[in-house]
Sequence to fold (637 residues):
Amino acid sequence: MTLLPALPIMIPLAGAVLCMLLRKSVVLQKAIALATSGILLLTAVCLMVHTRTGTIAVMHVGHWQAPFGITLAVDMLSCVMLLLTGLLAVGISFYACFDLDQPRMQFGFFPLMLILLMGVNGAFVTGDLFNLYVWFEVLLTASFILLALGGERPQLEGSVKYVALNLLSSALFLAGIGILYGMAGTLNLAELAVVVQQGERGGLVTMVAVMFLMAFGIKAGMFPLYFWLPASYPTPPIVVTALFSGLLTKVGVYSLIRVFTLVFSTDPEFLHGLILVGAGLTMLSGVLAAAAQFEMRKILAVHIVSQIGYIVMGLGLFTQLALTGTIFYLIHIMIVKTNLFLVAGAVNRIKGTYELKKLGGLYKEKPGLSILFIISAMSLAGVPPLSGFFAKLALIIAGLRQEAWLIVGVALGVSLLTLYSMTKIWSYVFWEPAPEPLPDLNPMPSGKWIMFLLPMIGFTILTIGIGVFAGPIFDYADAAAGQLMNPQGYIDAVLGGGG
Amino acid sequence: MTSIILRTATRYMFPPLLVFSIYILLRGHHYPGGGFVGGLFAGSAFALYTLAFDVADARRLIRIDPRDITAAGLAAALLSGIPPLFTDHAFLTGTWWEVPLFSGATMDIGTPLIFDIGVYLVVFGVLLTLVFVLGEEE
Fold:
C-alpha cells in the first residue's frame, strides 16, 4: 500500500485530464466528476482504515528519502480532512449536475473543481512546507477561475478582492518559508520540528511563526484580515460558494493546526495566546457582521468567519481536549455549512432571490426543504442532539479546564447570536408569509426535485448522525488530537525511513 | 497586423524556434533548460505566427486544439509516475529503459523525460490557449 498517500492527489488529476479531453460532452463530464469524487471518498476510507490504529502512512515521492525529497505523510487529522473532502466532493458534484447552468459546465467547471480538489488534498497529505505552498497555489489558481467563471460584474469585483488578499497572504507565506529555510536549512515539517525544538533561535522562530499565522489566518478568514471572504464568497453560483466554504478556509485552518502543533509549539504562551485572541475576535466580528445582513448567502458567508473562530479557539487553548474539540468542530462545520449553502441555493432555485425581505412562507410550500434547513441551522447554532452541540461542548469544557473564562464567555455569547441569525433566516424565509407572493420558478418535476435534494438530505442525515454517534467520533478525534499533541510519532514516521 | 517584414521574418524564424524548443527540452535533462522553457519557446513560435498572420491561420497550422495538448501533457506527467510502481518503487521514481538503436548502439530513455515532455505540452498548450483566446476577442 505504498501508493495510498499519493492517490488523493492522483485521482482528481486523472479525472481532470479526462474531463478536459471530453470537454464537448457535458454529460460525460458529469459522470467523470461523480465517479472521481466517489473513488476519492473510497480512497479516504481506505486511508482511514489503514491509519486508524495510529500508524502514519508515509510515502517518499520519487524514492527521495526525507528530509531531501518531498514526503507525503497522512495521519489521523489528514484522514479526517480527506474523508470530509471526499464527502463534500460527492455531494457538491451531484448538486452541480442539477443546478449549474450549461455554459459554466461547458467552460470547464468540472475539471476546475477536480483540480481544486487535487490542491486541497495535496495540502492535506503533504509533509513539506514548500510543497504545502505549491498546493495552496494549485487550489488558489483553480479557485480564482471558478470564482470568475461566468464573468458577471459582481463576480469580477469579488474576484479582485479575493485575488489581491490571497496573493498578499501567499507572499507572506513564501517570505516566511524563505526565512525559515535560511534559519533551519530544511523545509521538511518533521525535520523543522526537530530543529525548532532544539530552540537555538527562539525570538526569530516566534517572528516567523507570526508570519505564518498571518498568512494562514488570511486564507482561513481570521480576524483582522477576513473581509475578502464576505466580499467574494456570495458572488459566484451557489455550488461554487458551497465548495469554497466547505474546503478553502478549512485548508487554511488545517495548515494552522499542522504548523502550530508540529513546528511552532515551543512558545505556546505567546503564540497560542495570540491565536486565542484572534479566535475570540474572529467569532465576534463574524457574528456581529451577520446580524446586519439581510441576504441569505451573505449571512451564511460571514458566519463562516465566525465559525472559523471556534475552530481556531481549540488550537489557541492548545490542550488535547481542545484539539479534539477543534477536530470535531471541523467535521461538523464542513458538512453543516456546505449543506446550508446548498439549501439556500434550492431556495433561490424556487423563488429566484436570496433577499430575506422578499421571501416568505416557504414552510407551507416546501415543508421538506424547510426541515432540511432548520436541522442544519440548529446544528450550526449548537442545539443539543445535533452535531454542533457536541463540538461546542468539547471546546467549552476545554476552555473551562484552562480557566479561560473570557473566551468561553465569548463562545457562548456568539452561539446565542448565531441562533439569532439562523432564526432570522428561518422566520423571514420559511415561517412568515411573503410580503408579496412570489411565483414558483422551479420547473423540475417532482422526481428530479427529489434527486436534486438528495445531497442535502444526505448531509442532513450526516449532521444528525454525528450527533447520535458523537461518542465514537469523539474517540477518533481524541486519538487524532493525541497524535497532534505528541508530534514525536509523526517525526519518527517521516524521518525514520519507511516506505 | 499585416506587416510584410514581420511575416517574412516569421516564416524564417518559425522552424528554428521549434527545433530549438526541442533542443532546450532535451538539454534540460542535465543542464539548464527543460520542459518549461522548451514549451515557452514552442509556444512563442506559434504566438509569433499568430501575430504575423491571424488566429485562424495559427489554428489551422497546429490542427489540434491547444486545450487537448494541455490535457495530454497533464496525462503524460501523471503517467510518467506509474512505471516504477510495477517494480515496487515509490510513485515518480526515475525508471530507465534501454532502447536499441541501429548497429548495436543503445539509448536510455527514462520517465523523467516523459514527465518533462508532459511539462512541455502543458506549458505549450496553456500559452496557446491564452494567445488564441485573447486574439479572438478583438
About this structure: The longest strand of chain A covers residues 57-60.
